[in-house]
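Human: I wish I could look at a protein chain and see how it folds. This is the protein in question:
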Amino acid sequence: MKTNKTTSNTSDNISQFSKVIRIAGVLAIGLGAIMQPTNAENSQVNPAKKSPDGKGNMPTFAQADVNGDHVVTKSELLNFPYLLQTFDKVDAGNDGQLEQHEFQNLKMETKREGEVK
């Protein structure tokens, strides 16, 4: 009789374990679906989408400042190659970095040249 009781306990344990695994799986899927980055500091910045005519949309300063150091460098603009053409024109300090006011000049200069709408 002891053998039947052991077998019964083992079956009960396996059944309970299976339920726990299913619940954990459902919770993991649910949490994975709702856990999305909600701010720019914790998520990858999406590059500006290209419009149908092949010209790009202007990113915000925050989108261009990928590392969040409050300046934009040429390497940060690799996702926005159409902006690199006017980078040197607006880099007032010739330091390879654009502060926010210089980035606004980049935006105006690029629009003036007809690259971005």
